[in-house]
Amino acid sequence: MSVEFIGMIATRKASEIHPAEGPIIDRDYVRRFAEAHEQAGFDRILVAHHSTGPDAFLVVSYAATVTDRLGFMLAHRPGFVEPTLAARKLATLDQFTGGRLAVHIISGGDDAEQRRDGDFLGHDERYARTDEYVDILRRIWTSDRQFDHNGAYYRFQGGFSEVKPVQRPHIPIYFGGASAPAIDVAGRHADIYALWGETHEQVREQVARVRASAARHGRQIRFSVSFRPILADTEEAAWARAADILERTRALRTAQGAGPGDPKQSEGARRLLDAAAQGDRVDKRLWTAIARETGARSNSTALVGTPEQVADALLDYWDLGVTTFLIRGFDPLEDAIDYGRALIPHTRELVERRLAQRPAKAG
What we know:
Elements: E1 4-9, H1 27-40, E2 44-47, H2 56-65, E3 71-76, H3 83-96, E4 101-105, H4 111-115, H5 123-142, E5 147-150, E6 155-159, E7 173-176, H6 180-189, E8 192-195, H7 200-215, E9 222-227, E10 230-231, H8 235-255, H9 267-276, E11 281-282, E12 286-287, H10 289-294, E13 302-305, H11 307-319, E14 322-327, H12 332-357
Parallel strand pairs: 1-2, 1-14, 2-3, 3-4, 4-7, 7-8, 8-9, 9-14, 10-13
Antiparallel strand pairs: 5-6, 11-12, 12-13
Helix pairs in contact: 1-2, 1-12, 3-5, 5-6, 6-7, 11-12
């Protein structure tokens, strides 16, 4: 795949500039959101996990019924479902979606968030558990016979699944986490390693670290970077829109009584704040003000400009080895539609041109 675009859906309208209103699950909104991504040319959509939110398995199941081609990236936290059962659930969902499923493994970077669901392991131990968990997932998906397991976190006898994924050898595994333990686990298990929207230098350094980790296990990994593109017909209008988004973010946080953003245990959040410390505008068009304002608790950096300018900025990251872009807007549904008009097709065109410029391989 030369370039992949992933969007993100939620079960109701909400963002840094839109307070969550109405029922937590708005079926019509989910349907329109999923359909909009399919029509805009996205390859997949992320369905996130949160300790107080709807079940991502069921959200994906519903969204799959209202789309035909769109893939899904289901965020999943090890530790709350036994890996043998999780493997069967994921394989079953892959079967019912016709091979459209991927899983995004997130070990957790916030003790308070984990404890809401009864997980009291520390940060590094969560990644040790993830290592064992994902190894079991892959064995259950690929094994043609029962096997026993006696590990540090899981023990079972005769583990096996009659249902296998449509995709072979197994469902694609996306993986997030920027700490040293996370990179070690990523090297063993990730098919695609996901970063938030960092600077060119940060991405270059992180790609090198993860590639080195994978090489120690004889593996190769693809890379994903997440951005919040802010588009307009002119560059001046795009930056004016960015300024308005910042003011609306501040106003909403004040109205909600939100304190200063705190990255807590998330190394990814700290890396975004390091980028923000270099200034609000870094590299060509990376805008860090929302990350600084919110404590970078999610993918909160933007690329700002016209669709052509932002596509050119994405190409810079593609040149660094990134083949997947997770993009979502501050106006979630409306921006997804807008990305499909010019940003996605123009980026694909730029990548194809770059590929055509590469010399043919000998032999």
